[in-house]
Hints:
Blueprint: H1 4-16, H2 22-51, H3 62-68, E1 72-73, E2 76-80, H4 83-94, H5 108-114, H6 117-123, E3 125-130, E4 134-139, H7 145-155, E5 158-163, H8 166-190, H9 200-206, H10 217-232, E6 235-242, E7 246-253, E8 256-264, H11 268-278, E9 290-298, E10 301-312, E11 315-323, H12 325-328, H13 339-349, E12 354-359, H14 366-377, E13 384-388, E14 399-402, H15 411-418, E15 425-428, H16 434-445, E16 449-454, H17 459-468, H18 473-479, E17 480-492, E18 497-502, H19 504-509, E19 520-525, E20 536-547, H20 550-557, H21 562-571, H22 577-586, H23 592-599
Parallel strand pairs: 4-5, 12-16, 12-17, 13-14, 13-15, 15-16
Antiparallel strand pairs: 1-2, 3-4, 6-7, 6-11, 7-8, 9-10, 10-11, 17-20, 18-19
Bound molecules: zinc ion.
Zinc ion (ZN) binds next to loops.
Amino acid sequence: MIRTDRLTEILDLLVARGLIHAGNRADVLNRGREQARHILLDKRAEMRRLLGRHRVDYRVTEVELIAFFRFRRADDPDTILDEETITRALADHVGLPFVHLDPLQLDYKLVTESFGGPFAERHLVIAVAETEQALTVAIADPWDTELLESLARFKGKEIHPVLAEKSRLLQVIIEFHGFRRSMRKAEEDFRSDLPDLSNLEQLYALDGAGELDATDQPVVRAVWYLLNYAFDQRASDIHLEPKRDEAFVRMRIDGVLHTIHRLPKAVYPAMVSRIKMLARLDIAERRRPQDGRFKTQYKKYEVELRVSSVPTAFGEKVVIRVFDPGVLLQDIEQLGFFPRELQTWRAMLGNTAGMVLVVGPTGSGKTTTLYSSLHYLHSPRINIVTLEDPIEMVHEAFNQIPMQPRIGVTFGSALKNVLRQDPDVIMVGEVRDAETAQNAIQAALTGHLVISTMHTSDAASAIGRLLDLDVLPFLLSGVLIGVVAQRLVRKVCPHCAVDDVLTEEQALALRIKGARGRRLKVRRGEGCVKCRYTGYRGRTGLFEVMPITPRISKLITDKATQQEIKREALNDGMLTLRDYGIMKIAHGETTFEEVVAVTDDLPLY
Ligand SMILES: [Zn+2]
């Protein structure tokens, strides 16, 4: 039960730190005992439900009790004093590190094998790191020295305690050990019939297509967790990869693949089955590749997930692509344009006829720019038709047509049919062959705004590519409005950004004029929970915006070289992708490494 001496100690500490008022302190001391009884009843009922058994031990802690009052913070009345804040203050007070437990960053094997479930549950302890000499354990009660002493004896190692929120600790214990228990149980039940656990999925199939029963809830919850974590981190892809002894969960976050979690091999098939079930794939079929999709809700958005499974040497590999409208569709102000370039881009989109191109390699953000620009243009007065391969995001204001090359529906052929649909704006997924290029130019010539993408490294080379596709120079010079080359760079995490300087070598490598002997102030992320210790959070665009001026138009007609065209555009004030990157570095938005990574393939003229 609640110990008054400890409760008073924590309350005094919170008052001293300016987190609560003396009145709050009195409130807890007066009404605490009664409240603690309510919490206990609620929590017991919740635990019974979660654990699926009648007998549960539960002790309400002093921190939990104070958090239950939901006081407004004295130093910040808009914020509620939560368990995390109290636990952090307590950790600081008793001289222990605080740890924010993230279930997906914990080592499943270490957590489930260091202590048994009932022990972990009773003593509220999990192992979070282990070396030869020491075991780091997350605990909720800093006064339980007895626990730490017995752990040291029992493990024969130094024990390094860190303090965690009790509710998170309990959640991890219930999920991890619950997961393990249900896997074990399934293994026991089916051992006689089924030689290996990969057949566990047949159990679900036999069960009917409905939900798993309560003992399998950990699998359901683990998948739910994984998806929510992916959405939180704005992951674009989730990979589930079986290996010989375990399985990996990797996520592509801001364009970079990170290993997020390791799963025990025994658990893997159940998770894969759950995902396949959600995507309405054939669970029993494991030798043929399959594709499916499902939708789920995240915050206020509907997120579409495309699931693809393929057999590999160690089992099925599953990749889930996340089509998050929050990523694909943005205000064009948020794409990363500087004011002048944004104005030029808006002016290009303001034309009622002609062609606008966005160019760059795969993954450079072209689709987001296109969708966001079409969204900017859409109104009841104009008819927007898109030809896409595949449709990445459904937007009710666009008339979206998927390409089906197998039955002859290609960009080139569909363009002709679409003209009969009286479009004002036509988006063509990509210009990659002569037929598409020529039909797109025709559409642009006959009074439509055509927006498309190409795979070229910079703006000027798009012109050369179109001429290579047998587009006639005088037609091209007549319809081309502008070309934008694009790259994506990761943004410095705003939560852990610190001042830094660009070294002279770096400045020279970027060919910054007047860099010699100067130290330019920049920003970099030190790494924090919010950015998964990468120092980056979110991405922004670098843009090379090349409007086709009368002089450039003449150069195209005269079959000038790409270099001549680029030189002319630079004279008009165009920033190259690299210049754009340098400006973003100078603004503290991104880093030297990011800009070099996406622009080092470019010619320096
Ligand atoms: Zn950060």
